[in-house]
Amino acid sequence: MNQYPKDRCIPEELPALVEVLPHISILSPNAEEALSLLSMPATPTRILIEEACHRLLDLGVGREGHGSVIIRSGAMGAYVATRRRGGRWVDAFWTDADREAHIVDVTGAGNSFLGGLAAGLLFTDGDVHEATLYATVSASFTIEQEGLPRLTHTETNDGEAIEEWNRDLPRRRLKELQRRLHKVTE
Which chain positions lie within coiled-coil regions (predicted)? Predict the structure, then answer.
């Protein structure tokens, strides 16, 4: 019999988290986990998520408090914040209008997000705000079907093979998301 409760994101675990926060660079709970840890109301809203994110930052994420917090918030997107650059929302790739046509199963989206974040940190030289775009695109492929995204290779006219996921290009989605975010911030 397992002696540990399944859900560890409870207020009683906050002191243990605070103890390790200076030793990690990025904390990325989902919205429900963040709100639960901080004893905040359970229904996630953008305002509550932003407050939770900044409260977690205030607890001292990273060396000398210079870490990042990214709260993964499903259809709302992700809120990413650092002390230096503040916070910003990165919308989910699939909008409410796309939901019926593209969202099949959200199982694994959080893990896919975190894998995409790791790749994005590599590609962006550690820029957590930009890396969150890679994370968002990665999750967009995972939720389009049950199980793993379908990987195919299409040959171009010059004999090169182009890797596609679910018959789309990750780079195309990244550029689309960047374009959308750029329009919003102008």
Answer: none
Amino acid at the residue 91: D
What are phi and psi for residue 41, nearest 5 degrees?
Answer: -50, 145
More confident residue, 56 or 156: 56
Last residue of a domain, one of 48, 73, 91: 91
Element (H, E) at 26: strand 26-27
Same domain, 26 and 48: yes
Is residue 1 predicted with pLDDT exceeding 60?
Answer: no
User: Quick one: CA torsion of 98, 100, 106, 107, rounded to 10 degrees?
Assistant: -140
CA-to-CA dists, residue 128 to 35, 80, 83, angstroms: 22, 8, 12
Query: What DSSP string describes 46-106?
Result: HHHHHHHHHHHHHTT-SGGG--EEEEE-GGG-EEEEETTTEEEEE--SS-GGGHHHH----
| pTM of the shown model | 0.89
